[in-house]
Design a protein that fits this description.
mainly beta, four-stranded antiparallel sheet
């Protein structure tokens, strides 16, 4: 399908096919859903809904939102999925109803402003209730078949946090707000909504979440204080609160019911607990990493998936509560991504908290390297694949063994205030590093020793990127001070300097090393001549936001860019036109890597997600024109004119 996303409106662009996503953003409450067919997991990732088959691990995507998804829910039979998004002040926030079988958008519902807080399907699936956020605070009932609103009303005096239909009635609902609970009666004939406040007595609680037990006699509300309130629905009165003398730390975020009536709660401190419904006593509990934001049960209620704010998904039995880590990802900004030389099966990413090595085929995490309280800015694989060289905030260069993750060696005090760029030579004898204060340093790597060969101080700002030529004689560095310097590594002097009114973010050599490509905060992609340092061409790379990421294909016929506008663009090098684009990230794209076999483009974002894209067939087949005449061509030429 063609869509014009380019600065030049006449060019029809094609969308790059998204192959897979490594990512789970655990900040959407009840965002992880096990579909009623017991085979698929659904969760939002930025503006995309990921549908993952549990056994085969294949992924499909539902895309229709233009901003972060704030809520997602499935209908009782699983036929429909509904999702809502957040936008900016004064703008409308969309709800979308999806057909799960076809993974297609059925209706786009527009009435609310700024944020969709909660969504709920009625038991018969004829109606959908939607609740706007704090600035909207309206409750609207929609007809699912036609996508038209039936009736609406102001949801309450305070901020309403969640709505739920009763289990056996299409015309009764419950809503929970900061200091109260309302029971709603829907009159579909007269198109009216009426509410009854529940008498809570002297109890004041900020109520996050609610669940109605199967017979519709009671509802259980979980609070920010860390306890559970039981409410009688037929009398609209508060019954009891518990567990007594045992409040859960950082509040209860999500709640679920087992078939025997026991209550499961997920808490802000990572506790998963099972509470007896009769006596409100804690029967079992377990601890997981991160605040628990979702719990979704299998059909028979024996197991559940638990999602946390640290982007972990656990598989847990509901009897003894033994959590087992099933899925994990970065939950902070990813700073760098790199493939080993000529090996496309694995790649490494570094984030604020750790370095992780991933299997590119099945998207499993193979290794995690952590240095407490430090952030890794950059990484690269040595050409022989025997070590990963990393740069850290404490100014040290650390090398790790890629299979065990053990520390190989450390270069202390490599740079003041942090190592921000790393490049390795093709003969594995040198490592180049760039620092926060603008130095470029050359390190000789011996068998036992690491010594500094040269320190090149010309940049006055952070060095953002370093690249070496194939023969290791020249290197190029780009900095936030607006300069890009070509270095001679034989004499350790500056060969050439290129200035531009921008903060350079990334630099790359064209494979024939006759030109240099740069991206930066001025949103332009610049081509430079390596012979005389002149700017050959500048193209507008984005309409909004700086360009942070750049990667060239092996042939040099195409290059990929990404940045703060969250869009991956694939450009033709000679024409300077973006023929392909990829949308999916919910944060800015921080780095791009193209796999050595050229089949996969990996983008990493500030939201902590890793996107794997299939390289378009045309780009794979593109071969560079050989500009230099070969012997064969010369022979043909001579025969022709003799």
């Amino acid at each position: 399908k063609g869509k014009s996303l380019n600065m030049d409106e006449d060019i029809i662009q094609q969308e790059i096919q998204l192959s897979a996503v490594i990512g789970f953003k655990g900040n959407v409450i009840d965002g992880l859903i096990l579909h009623p067919d017991n085979e698929h997991l659904l969760y939002p990732l930025g503006s995309t809904i990921v549908v993952r088959h549990i056994i085969s691990r294949t992924q499909k995507f539902m895309r229709g939102h233009d901003n972060n998804i704030s809520v997602i829910t499935a209908s009782p039979s699983g036929k429909y999925i509904a999702s809502g998004q957040s936008t900016y002040m004064g703008f409308q926030a969309d709800c979308i109803v999806w057909d799960f079988e076809k993974l297609e958008l059925i209706h786009r519902l527009k009435l609310h402003k700024v944020l969709i807080q909660s969504l709920a399907f009625s038991p018969s699936e004829h109606y959908l209730a939607s609740l706007g956020g704090q600035d909207d605070n309206r409750l609207v009932i929609w007809e699912v078949a036609s996508g038209k609103p039936v009736c609406g009303n102001a949801a309450g005096s305070d901020k309403v946090n969640q709505i739920k239909f009763y289990n056996n009635s299409d015309d009764q609902m419950i809503s929970v707000q900061n200091f109260g609970v309302n029971l709603w009666k829907i009159d579909y004939v007269n198109k009216k909504l009426g509410s009854t406040p529940v008498n809570l007595g002297n109890l004041r609680r900020v109520i996050h979440n609610v669940i109605v037990e199967p017979t519709d006699n009671f509802a259980y509300c979980c609070t920010k204080t860390g306890d559970i309130m039981e409410i009688s629905l037929d009398k609209a009165i508060f019954k009891r609160v518990g567990p007594i003398k045992k409040l859960f730390s950082l509040g209860i975020n999500c709640i679920n019911l087992l078939l025997n009536g026991d209550i499961l709660v997920g808490c802000g401190d990572g506790t998963v607990a099972k509470i007896g419904a009769k006596d409100f006593r804690v029967r079992a509990q377990a601890k997981v990493m991160g605040a628990v934001t979702s719990m979704t049960l299998t059909a028979d209620g024996t197991y559940m998936f638990v999602g946390t704010s640290h982007s972990n998904i656990y598989w847990c039995d509901t009897d003894s509560l033994n959590p087992e880590l099933r899925n994990t990802c970065h939950f902070e900004k990813i700073n760098h991504v790199a493939f080993p030389h000529n090996y496309s099966e694995v790649f490494a990413t570094c984030s604020v908290n750790d370095i992780r090595i991933w299997n590119a085929k099945n998207r499993q995490e193979l290794l995690r390297i952590q240095v407490p309280n430090l952030e890794c800015y950059t990484l690269d694989f040595m050409r022989d694949g025997k070590s990963i060289i990393t740069g850290w905030t404490d100014g040290k260069i650390r090398a790790f063994l890629p299979q065990s993750g053990k520390l190989f060696y450390v270069i202390n005090d490599a740079h003041n205030h942090g190592v921000t760029a790393i490049a390795t030579s093709s003969d594995c004898s040198k490592v180049l590093s760039g620092g926060m204060e603008g130095e470029v340093r050359v390190w000789k790597i011996g068998r036992q020793t690491q010594t500094m060969e040269a320190s090149l101080k010309e940049h006055r700002g952070r060095v953002n990127d370093l690249k070496l030529t194939k023969d290791n004689n020249m290197a190029v560095s780009c900095s936030a001070d607006g300069s890009c310097i070509l270095w001679d590594l034989k004499t350790f002097t500056r060969a050439m300097c290129m200035f531009e009114n921008t903060m350079f973010k990334q630099v790359g050599f064209h494979p024939d090393e006759s030109q240099i490509l740069t991206t930066g905060s001025d949103r332009k992609v610049s081509y430079w001549d390596t012979y005389d340092g002149q700017a050959i061409r500048m193209i507008e790379g984005s309409e909004e936001g700086e360009l942070d990421a750049l990667a060239l294909t092996r042939e040099g016929e195409h290059f990929a860019t990404g940045g703060a506008d969250k869009i991956l663009r694939l450009w033709d090098y000679d024409q300077g036109i973006a023929f392909y684009y990829g949308i999916g990230h919910s944060g800015g794209i921080t780095k791009i890597a193209i796999s050595p076999d050229q089949r996969t483009i990996v983008t990493v974002g500030s939201e902590g997600a890793i996107f794997l894209w299939n390289t378009p067939e045309k780009v794979l087949k593109a071969k560079a024109d050989s500009d230099m005449p070969t012997l064969n061509q010369q022979a043909i030429y001579q025969n022709k004119f003799q």
